[in-house]
Amino acid sequence: MLKIALAKGRLLDHTIELFKGAGFDISAVKREKRKLKFVFEELGLEAMIVKPMDVTTYVEYGVADVGIAGKDVIVENRADVYEPLDLGFGYCRMVVAQPKDLELPPFGVGLKVATKYPRIAERFYGKRGIPVEIIHLYGSVELAPLVGLAHQIVDLVETGTTLRENGLVEVETIFEVTARLIVNRSSMRVKYQEINRFMDRIEAALS
Questions:
Q1: Same structural domain for residues 12 and 54?
Q2: Which of 14, 155, 186, 206 counts the highest number of beta carbons within 10 A?
Q3: Any idea what the CATH number is for the domain that residue 51 is in?
Q4: pLDDT, tens digit, 9 for 90 and up, residues 168-183
């Protein structure tokens, strides 16, 4: 059985559709919402439904052979996995944003940045030699500049509507994000043929 870690939330519908096109009907994972582990014997697949930020952990530690994860999660978690396929869906951007009329501290002195992605933020500002205080939040990042908690935010943006509605503007795009197929390094050796057959079918469904 090929073990697959699938992310809950916005990527799951796209994943189900892609798998269906590849001949893997895993729609039961959507119907049975409280169930977290599914065995599809006829497909040779075992699927586990996990939080998006946990997909890389399940794959890196070999609990899952392959997984579907956003590029943001892969970069933030510094996952030691193979990343053979860009699946193209779940597109958004990792950006720096701030209030429209904000005047930043000189040379970054005292600059505070709120984010759900502290490693990505640290790397971004570090490469530019800008000293910052990173404030790690788990939600409502857009609120931080409005209440004086931070000057800027680093966050995922799909359409930019939430930023605009809260008086924020994008300053810079750090990188673009799409869903990726990731593979455990040991599994790639041990289950080479099974994984390659699986990837061939997924890649064919993408074209």
A1: yes
A2: 155
A3: 3.40.190.10
A4: 999 999 999 999 999 9
